[in-house]
């Protein structure tokens, strides 16, 4: 979307190195990097473990292999509770936006890759490999929704809540004539021009009905996850050892709680858009042309008769009336070239509201890059730095908990240390990247960013491998219960 004001410096690295701000392909590239990291890690660990040997534990530190669980904690019991908790936290924390209507001109392979079901799988894998990534997304979306609520409040609009703002940012609204608002800024621009009479209470009810998970489910998930977190802390308090998988589960819980806090009012699993039936529709063009004479006004009216709806590809379509084009998307961008051809460019200018939330990436269609903020630089910094702190915390937690732990192979200890420190170093490096891009955002910095992503994925995969191998030999006391937890605290998995 074209703007009269300059783009913010934050995010310039992405704008410089992504053609047309195609973040869908960036996410696909990151997904492929994650896939590549798996065989690379397997080969590397196989080579490194061959250099070591099986660890011999002293009698004072007895270890045992796989343990059944008739009356106490067993290996399967620990794995089941941890994996079910991780899956619950990860699955419910993935909020995919409303899918866009496919264009007939889009490559079929790309259409398959971007299917709504596969998009959720991508985000699930991202959440597993880098849970702090979802914290970044949630913080960006929360700040965007807050900016939308503030914008409507300045318009003296009653009843517009943060749930509406989330839904608008998800691309959840469309008009009865088929025009779709793919982003929140599109909706706010239209609303500012038309000032329609809308029943926001009924709209909120409709949003709740379309959402597949309510606040109660999120709260129950948080309670179950918090119970697991408290029990793990109690094991440390009673000087009982914990497994590596339990500590990793706690890091997912921390990320999930932060994410749920940001998305507590965000609709979940919404498939279709809500159609807005309005009775007031003014000429869209009247807000974009500065009319200085009656002749100009007549020229504007003449031009408006030839304007066509805009398809998902951004090109005008004139073969069918607007009301018969269900895939049309609201766009101001196509109006400017039309005006430039038939009017004086000095008189025809796009003038968005000055207090409209501003996007970091005007052409992006993927969350969180298509969100808009009152202060984009500050919002991007807040989201990047908080999520980086969460990522560094995850690495520190892994490092401190098992810094001196001996694994089944003598090479395991230094691999765990190196991977944990990598989880600390990569988020810290990303913080520095947000500052460096103000001075330089060329291809070398972009390549360094992708290299960090590969290193991070390799470190995470190596940690997952060590966690799985640890069940071959865990301290015997890992299978001792915290005396109060299993008998008096209910569980839900």
TrEMBL record:
Keyword Transmembrane helix: yes
Transmembrane segments: 26-49, 78-101, 380-402, 414-436, 443-471
Highest taxon listed in the record's lineage: Eukaryota
Protein keywords: Membrane, Transmembrane, Transmembrane helix
PANTHER family: TRANSCRIPTION FACTOR DOMAIN-CONTAINING PROTEIN
Name of the protein in its database record: Uncharacterized protein
Species classification: Eukaryota, Fungi, Dikarya, Basidiomycota, Agaricomycotina
């Amino acid at each position: 979307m074209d703007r009269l004001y300059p783009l913010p410096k934050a995010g310039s690295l992405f704008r410089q190195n992504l053609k047309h701000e195609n973040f869908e392909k960036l996410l696909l590239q990151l997904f492929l990097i994650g896939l590549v990291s798996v065989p690379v890690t397997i080969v590397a660990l196989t080579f490194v473990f061959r250099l070591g040997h099986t660890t011999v534990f002293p009698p004072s530190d007895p270890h045992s292999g796989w343990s059944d669980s008739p009356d106490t904690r067993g290996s399967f019991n620990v794995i089941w509770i941890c994996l079910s908790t991780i899956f619950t936290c990860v699955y419910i924390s993935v909020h995919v936006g409303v899918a866009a209507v496919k264009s007939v001109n889009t490559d079929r392979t790309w259409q398959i890759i971007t299917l709504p079901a596969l998009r959720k799988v991508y985000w699930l894998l991202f959440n597993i490999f880098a849970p702090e990534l979802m914290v970044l997304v949630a913080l960006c979306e929360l700040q965007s929704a807050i900016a939308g609520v503030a914008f409507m409040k300045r318009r003296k609009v009653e009843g517009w809540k943060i749930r509406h703002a989330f839904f608008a940012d998800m691309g959840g609204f469309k008009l009865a004539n088929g025009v779709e608002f793919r982003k929140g800024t599109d909706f706010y621009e239209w609303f500012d021009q038309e000032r329609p009479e809308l029943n926001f209470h009924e709209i909120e009810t409709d949003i709740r009905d379309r959402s597949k998970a309510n606040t109660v489910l999120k709260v129950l998930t948080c309670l179950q996850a918090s119970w697991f977190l408290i029990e793990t802390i109690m094991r440390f308090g009673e000087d009982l050892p914990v497994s590596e998988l339990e500590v990793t589960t706690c890091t997912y819980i921390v990320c999930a709680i932060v994410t749920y806090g940001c998305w507590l009012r965000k609709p979940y699993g919404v498939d279709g858009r809500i159609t807005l039936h309005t009775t007031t529709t003014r000429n869209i063009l009247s807000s974009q042309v500065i009319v200085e004479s009656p002749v100009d006004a007549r020229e504007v009216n003449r031009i408006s008769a030839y304007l066509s709806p805009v398809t998902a590809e951004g090109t005008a379509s004139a073969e069918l009336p607007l009301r018969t084009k269900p895939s049309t998307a609201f766009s101001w961008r196509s109006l400017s070239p039309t005006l430039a051809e038939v009017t004086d460019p000095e008189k025809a200018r796009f003038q968005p509201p000055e207090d409209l939330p501003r996007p970091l990436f005007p052409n992006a269609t993927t969350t969180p890059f298509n969100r808009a903020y009152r202060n984009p630089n500050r919002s991007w910094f807040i989201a990047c730095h908080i999520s980086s702190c969460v990522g560094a915390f995850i690495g520190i937690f892994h490092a401190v908990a098992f810094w001196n732990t001996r694994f089944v192979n003598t090479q395991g200890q230094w691999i765990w240390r190196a991977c944990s420190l990598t989880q600390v170093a990569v988020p810290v490096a990303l913080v520095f990247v947000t500052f460096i891009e103000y001075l330089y955002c060329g291809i070398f910095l972009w390549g360094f960013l992708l290299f960090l992503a590969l290193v991070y994925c390799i470190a995470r995969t190596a940690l997952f491998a060590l966690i799985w191998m640890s069940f071959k030999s865990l301290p015997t006391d890992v299978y001792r219960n915290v005396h109060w937890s299993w008998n008096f605290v209910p569980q839900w998995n």
